[in-house]
Amino acid sequence: MKPIIAITVGDYNGIGPEVSLKAIATPLVRRLCTPVLVGPSGIFERVASRLALRMRFLPFASTGPGGGRIVQILEPAGGTPVRFSPGRLSADAGAAAGAAIRTSIRLVLAGEARALVTAPVSKHALHLAGINAPGQTELLQRLTRSPHVAMMLVSGSLRVGLVTIHTPLRKVPRELTDALLRERITVIHRALRTDWRIRSPRLAVLALNPHAGEGGDLGNEEQRVIIPVIAALREEGLRLEGPFPADAFFARYEPGSYDAVVAMYHDQGLIPVKMSARGKAVNVSVGLPLVRTSPDHGTAFDIAGRSIADPASMIEAIRTAVSLSFHRPAATLEGKP
Question: Which of 23, 25, 17, 18 is nearest to 54 (CA)?
Fold first, then answer.
């Protein structure tokens, strides 16, 4: 039986509904899973009509029909006002995105879906709706009450996990503590073993400063934090190498040479992944009690409503979610939000 995969609406004024519908219309996705769209049904119906996709939408039932042109939709309880206006920032769209995330988490933790794929959201729209989280990764961590979570971008054999996530660059050195670095490396290592079934993962750890700090002349975070943590975790049996200067490391990187790369901040890790992936990278939240993936792009308000959004990253996010869902037991209701 094909796994049920929950797919959130994201910010409905962005390209989330479009790339989701385009993705589930492909033979690959239909062959891999039974998708369940989570969000306002009217949004999906209007976008499907704009895209000329001949789909029949039905309310979700875990034992109900799925596949082909039949698509199930789960509307979050209570409902939120829907004012569909592609390309516009909206508190209502932020509220709908948040409601879809909460509903999808419950669906997966109840065992009615195997994994969660989230369409892009606008962080500003979430904030306008009163949802105070820097991004979806942090929101999912809070809603699932998960103590240790990391963000990982995946493209083929290249996996890059982040130590700091949506942290302003000027704050990164202050946040880069022994405890945080140890936590994120440990979470990434554990995910490689459980979700990717890599028995003894080999990780490369990047430096924070140019030229790995040049012995302290260009910054002391390597000597003060990164090198001691690497040494301590090696003593515990982890296979770690580094810290490597980021520019030289990625310039010489050979696919498959490491099972994951640990980057100190958002752009340090995501720029090389997105350049190599050419629009097909996947965001994976590791450390959650459920499998969650998302495409590597944002809401793209500038092209929303024009029917030209590329679903490649969403297709890959769904494919990755299905693959990872078979590598771990079903989620449980323990800690349900």
Answer: 25
Instruction: Say which residue the tokens 């963000």 belong to.
Output: 151
The per-residue pLDDT for 333 is: 44
Q: Is the pLDDT of residue 65 over 80?
A: no
CB proximity list for 109: less than 8 A, separation 6 or greater: 144, 289, 290, 331, 332, 333, 335, 336
- At residue 335, does pLDDT exceed 50? no
For residue range 102-160, what is the model confidence (pLDDT) as tens digits?
Answer: 999 999 999 999 999 999 999 999 999 999 988 899 999 999 999 999 999 999 889 99
C-alpha separations of 224 from 171, 221, 317 in Å: 17, 5, 37
CA nearest neighbour of 94 among 116, 119, 127 = 127
Q: How many CA atoms lie within 13 A of 258 on its CB side?
A: 25
What's the pTM value of the predicted model, to 2 decimals? 0.92
On the question of a common fold for 1-146+288-337 and 150-283, the answer reads yes
Taking 80 as the threshold, does the pLDDT of residue 271 lie above it? yes
Closest CA to 209 of 224, 189, 230, 228: 224
Q: Does residue 202 register a pLDDT over 80?
A: yes
Determine the Cα–Cα distance for residues 195 and 162; give it in Å rounded to an integer: 17
Smallest Cα–Cα separation from 165: which of 89, 254, 267, 79?
267
- Which H/E stretch holds residue 161? strand 158-162
* DSSP 3-state of 295: strand
Cα–Cα dist 252/268, whole Å? 15
pLDDT of 62 strictly over 80 = no
Q: What CA–CA distance (Å, rounded) separates 45 from 51?
A: 10
Q: Domain-by-domain residue ranges, the chain?
A: 1-146+288-337, 150-283
Domain 150-283 listed as CATH 3.40.718.10? yes
Q: What topology does CATH give the domain 1-146+288-337? A: Isopropylmalate Dehydrogenase (3.40.718)
Residue type (1 letter), 145: R
Amino acid identity of 292?
A: R
